[in-house]
Batch of 2 targets.
Target 1
Amino acid sequence: MSRILFAFLLIILGYSAFAQSGTRHISFRTVDQDSVSLPLNEGYFLIEDSCAQIIRNCRFNFTTKRFHGKFSDVSKANPALIVSTGTYSDDGLKNGLFTSWYLNGKLQARGDFKDDKYAGKWEMYYNDGKPELTFEVTDGNIVINDAWDLQGKKVVDNGNGVYRDDLQGMYWMGKLLNGRPEGRWNLMRTDDISNTAISTERYKKGEFKGGSTGQMDYTNASHINLVDPFKLPFVNAEKMYISQVACNGTKSKHIVGAQYEDGLKVFSSCISEAVSPFFSKADLKGINNTIDIAGEISEKGNLINMKNNGSFNEDIAMGIIRKLSYLPPLHPATVDGKPVKQKFIISFNISDNVYRFTYRFLDILVD
């Protein structure tokens, strides 16, 4: 049994990997020349052995860079607790029954794969043991049977209801009819409270009719996968990615900038409506300059601490600020879900008795 530094493994396998600055000492054990024992975190990313939560024991083909044969993932804290089992073909494809459990011992998912694709009937659960999703694959198509939200409310019953397919930072949402998409489906950003569609697709009786990204239309194939292939964390192990957070490191904070409930385009209209009465009466003749109004969006979403960010025409700047103070509140910026202040600048360019404005929310700095 030998121990090889993971840095050397990267050279041999040619894998790209997430990494932080500084030296990472991630190693693994090889067993009988064709098997490995990998230290993984809860998300199935490689991590330093000293803080691994999961150990994967599996045969590994160093030439094709794929797992093969049966495998078992166990809790490092309790090796008797199996957290994932399944079988890879000689080509490294998932085939047959796969079962996964959470580290608390509760069932996460159970079902079959065929050539790396979902097959047959599947059942998935939340980490508190409550059901999340049941589906089956019929003629190569995923058919959703039942689905529940995080609060335990059943949102899809016997194939009918509103379904959400979560991706990384985005999600598809739309109506299901007999387990298949029906009508209009929208792709939206997870943190966008205005629910503005990035892309849309149209279906009739489960058949894809066309889609649009806003910039181009497409009819060749749907972009929706009703159950994301990476929904099951153990699939991450196949990529052999290194965790972005080092052992005992600090996890990146989740930062969401300030937003307006009806979208920032509507907020622009609100700014225009607020300042128009002032500019309609102001004497702008002969002025060719820019006034920058700097301020903050408070933890309650109000515009506060506004001031003229330059020395040009304080009277006009104060008139603008008075009107801006009546703007409707925004949804405040958050860091890991906690409201925080965010700075902004609204620039008014005045030229030939006409004004135009732009605005931007500045980056949120965190410790």
Target 2
Amino acid sequence: MTRRDGIRTICVLAFCQALLVAAGSILLSFNSLVGSDLAPDPRLATLPHAPLNIVNAAIVTPASLLMLRVGRRSALLLGAMAGAVSAALTAASIGLGSFSLLCMGMALYGGFQGLGQYYRFAAAEAAPEGKRNLAVSAVIGASIVGVIVGPLVGIQVKELIPGAPFAGSYLAAAVFALVSIAALSCLPPLRLEQNPAPRDDRGLAVLVRPSVFAALANSVVAYMVMVTVMVATPLAVVHAGHSVGDTATVIQWHLVGMYLPSLVTGRLIDRFGEVPIMLCGTLLLAVSGTLALTGTSLAHFWGALLLLGIGWNLLFLGSTAILAGIADARDRVRAQGANEFLVCITTATGAFLAGEIFAEGGWTSVSLFVYPLLLVAALSTWRYARLKRAAQRMLPSSGTSA
């Protein structure tokens, strides 16, 4: 792939990432409201989120192996097709008054989300020499466009179909997915280059390498801390006497913190390396927790959630840089698949724990919950850095890393 083709591929993947987030923000913003109208029991209003998370967790590891066989583009196209069908089914569920169809549509969206998580890895492989981290940053940074555009479009078209509120919003999500299909169809196959040399198939042994273990630990901790705190935040903000509108503002700034730093994080990783960036992310998450413990004013919530987003970004992109840099394609897809699976499990667990922790101990318990997790991330990063320095001292000319 030429440099020009690589840049074009990265731009398309960033565009598709924005569309993925835009479609997802529509479905996730309005799904509970639609579920409350269609569910036979009000307690089942949020049930459609369950099949989404189940399918997402089930598909991410097989998806990585599928990409090894058929190439990134074909698998990503399959995901976008699932997204288009998903949004169409959810729109139809409103017109037909079918709760089961809504659940089916959300399950298919889990496939769209699961496969779409590999946009950043595809961009890293298409990047020109020395630009891998910038490519990942560009793709993740494009998410901020989707965060803004998706809900705005969804609200504007929610009454598009008379008598079926929000059906127009879901059809807008289907359009986003269809545009993704068109964009991805313009790309080359994006096949992963495999090492032709014979080697022992060690299965998932790659996961215990210090570098990969550090990446997985930081990724899991980043998501567990971020999701647990973020899900508990609306409860804490209202409990502290602030308005629902204040809650929306706090979450909005949190999302800005998650995605906007991506515009520079790649350059920082190129300049300083993954280890300092991940340690800085861990520190910012600790500062976020400390700020949350010091008060419940709106400024405290705003600052804590903004730092939470930035810290997540540094850990997430730092771990992505390590996983994208694994030389052997088979090891790379195994590690990436394991990472995405663990992230899915972590996200579901964090969302579940948030309510339990807040109910038992309030906002203080939620804030204290993060510190043991951050210690795990810091220790794994320190171990990786120590072994990497030792390897470089032993073989300075080979560039060997742990």
